[in-house]
Amino acid sequence: MQHLVVLSGAGVSAESGIKTFRDSNGLWENHRVEDVASPEGFARDPELVLDFYNQRRAQLHEVGPNEGHRIIAQLEDHYRVSVVTQNIDDLHERAGSTQVVHLHGELLKARPVGREHPVLDWTGDIRLGDTDDGGRQLRPHIVWFGEAVPMIDRAAQLVAAADVIIIIGTSMQVYPAAGLVGLAPHDCPVYYVDPNPTISYELKQRREIRVVEMVGSRGMARVFEELTGQVYQ
User: Which CATH superfamily is domain 3-17+65-104+149-228 in?
Assistant: First the structure.
């Protein structure tokens, strides 16, 4: 069975009602990025940061996967599918995808400050005073600016072994994620689903690229048909 790798970003979850964090003014939900998405911001005002992610987590409980997520999951009937996502939500998993790598962490998990482990399932609020078994304050299991991306090596291995790649919901402009597509075999076909596509440097180097100028769910239905010869039901 051929290996299909999906590189997904915020756009695939937008149709579910998940807000993309960064607004046109560069703020995240009216906060400066460095205040709510950096270790320094957490050190300055941990309560603000915890509340920011508590709100994101509460919103996630109110939405569900959309057709784009479900089509990606259904491709597992035809391919060995690996999803490498920049999203911190769990909508791919809830749609049925079984192999998902989260580059930027997961909103429904927590870990102790200053440690990579243990990573704990955490569906409710994280508050000051919530600790692991060692008495260490918990923080969201999110990769903040300035922190290492621990799953990037695993993602690179998957892309390097891909037979087909689909890019959806991301312009692939921000590194290190942007560099992943350049690791794919040179003759690996790339499908790029975006209503306003921007062809990055890495994409320009690809031998075979199919741009689908549609929103996520409609674009994925088109790609599904091309890859399987079947109409998505």
Answer: TPP-binding domain (3.40.50.1220)
